[in-house]
């Protein structure tokens, strides 16, 4: 049977966007779910494989470009001599997300070599997660931040397109499993037979045997790269919180979906402020005269500086609360407060004039005619 145009298979125009391609595939996948097409599983198998092949090509920017220019011949090397097989399908994650990886789904497709099917088949494997730590200024906990991270990745080799074979074509269908990636063994035990199904030891579940290794990746099919991504750190994140970025971990072997990126956020310490939940705590030192007579003092805040009014007669270690100058609630609208503890600066030395003025201001007591303070035993009541 002649192959149909991939755009025709998915029922989309050649100008379809990536989102339209995925939407069309998801809609068709629902229609041909094994739980739905129970009356004719063989036809469902063929139809599902056809739409998955079309999606494999049109969902990949490079494969789609070559298909648009050269037709089927432009993507033949991606599938090998036997054409498209489930070993070539790199969007298992989309199917699991869509179909929920139901037992019947895995049982149905596991029978003809779908990656991840039951029966011992070793197919696509989810990639490893990546863990990083990012350090940000304390102000980022208030306004949020968008730091750029360099994430190590292991992607399919660009020369062999992940096959591990020179030019992506130097391989053949595995002669032991005939491309299924699994072998069956039957053992007779009296009047019974024991059937076991396991990974093919020659091709290790890939269904093909590499004839000549790719010189670029030495046959591994992988290349180590560094990806630069922008991380969105929302306001109100606690120190030590871990943010998850789906799909930005290591790419899985055999077309498996990528793992996730986990980023631990650490905030740099501040010399003037500290954090306790949503509240911020700071300190300010005021001159003795300001504490006695009142006045204003500038104090640091999370977003700059603010003016703090000092009432007359302020005692040392008095805390003042600045409403709404603390940290925001994570994914909320409220903010905590800034609590500033005031320290009173006591001068270490005073001139005679300054002492007299201070005694006068504080009402320190009577003085003799000489201007000197009289001893208490000489004071008399009027």
Lateral arrangement of strands in the main beta sheet: 10-11-15-14
Main sheet: strands, sense, barrel: 4 strands, mixed
Mean pLDDT across every amino acid position: 78
What is the name of the CATH superfamily of the domain at 1-119?
Answer: DnaJ domain
Distance between the termini: 127 Å
Q: What CATH architecture of the domain at 1-119 would you give?
A: Orthogonal Bundle
- Provide the CATH topology of the domain at 1-119: Helix Hairpins
What low-confidence regions span 5 or more consecutive residues with pLDDT below 50? 100-123, 365-371, 374-382
The general outline is: elongated
Report the helical percentage. 10-25%
Topology (elements, then pairings):
Blueprint lengths: L5 H5 L7 H14 L9 H18 L2 H10 L5 H4 L12 H8 L3 H8 L19 E7 L3 H4 L4 E9 L14 E3 L8 E8 L2 E8 L8 E3 L11 E9 L11 E4 L15 E7 L5 E4 L2 E9 H6 L1 E7 L2 E7 L7 E5 L15 E8 L6 H11 L20
Parallel strand pairs: 1-9, 11-15
Antiparallel strand pairs: 2-7, 3-6, 4-5, 8-9, 10-11, 12-13, 14-15
Helix pairs in contact: 2-3
């Amino acid at each position: 049977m002649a192959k149909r145009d991939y755009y025709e298979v998915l029922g989309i125009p050649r100008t379809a966007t990536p989102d339209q391609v995925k939407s069309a595939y998801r809609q068709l996948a629902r229609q041909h779910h094994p739980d739905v097409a129970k009356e004719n599983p063989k036809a469902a198998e063929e139809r599902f494989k056809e739409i998955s092949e079309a999606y494999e090509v049109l969902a990949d920017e490079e494969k789609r470009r070559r298909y648009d220019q050269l037709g089927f011949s432009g993507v033949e090397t991606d599938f090998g001599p036997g054409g498209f097989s489930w070993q070539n399908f790199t969007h298992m994650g989309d199917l699991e997300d869509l179909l929920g990886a139901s037992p019947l789904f895995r049982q149905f497709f596991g029978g003809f070599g779908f990656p991840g099917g039951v029966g011992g088949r070793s197919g696509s494997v989810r990639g490893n997660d990546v863990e990083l730590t990012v350090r940000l200024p304390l102000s980022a906990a208030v306004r949020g931040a968008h730091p750029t991270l360099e994430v190590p990745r292991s992607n399919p080799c660009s020369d062999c397109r992940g096959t591990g074979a020179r030019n992506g074509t130097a391989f053949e269908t595995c002669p032991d499993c005939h491309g299924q990636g699994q072998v069956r063994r039957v053992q007779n035990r009296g009047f019974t037979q024991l059937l076991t199904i396991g990974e093919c030891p020659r091709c290790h579940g890939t269904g093909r045997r590499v004839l000549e290794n790719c010189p670029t990746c030495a046959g591994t099919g992988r290349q180590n790269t560094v990806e630069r991504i922008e991380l969105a750190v929302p306001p109100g994140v606690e120190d030590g919180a871990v943010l998850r970025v789906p799909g930005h971990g290591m790419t899985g072997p055999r077309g498996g979906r990528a793992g996730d990126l986990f980023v631990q956020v650490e905030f740099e310490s501040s010399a003037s402020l500290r954090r306790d939940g949503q509240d911020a705590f700071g300190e300010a030192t005021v001159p003795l005269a300001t504490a006695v007579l009142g006045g204003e003092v500038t104090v640091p805040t999370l977003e700059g500086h603010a003016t703090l009014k000092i009432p007359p007669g302020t005692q040392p270690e008095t805390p003042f609360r600045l409403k709404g100058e603390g940290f925001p609630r994570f994914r909320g609208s409220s903010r905590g407060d800034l609590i500033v503890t005031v320290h009173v600066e006591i001068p270490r030395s005073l001139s005679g004039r300054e002492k007299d003025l201070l005694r006068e201001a504080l009402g320190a007591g009577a003085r003799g005619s000489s201007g000197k303070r009289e001893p208490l035993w000489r004071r008399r009541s009027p």
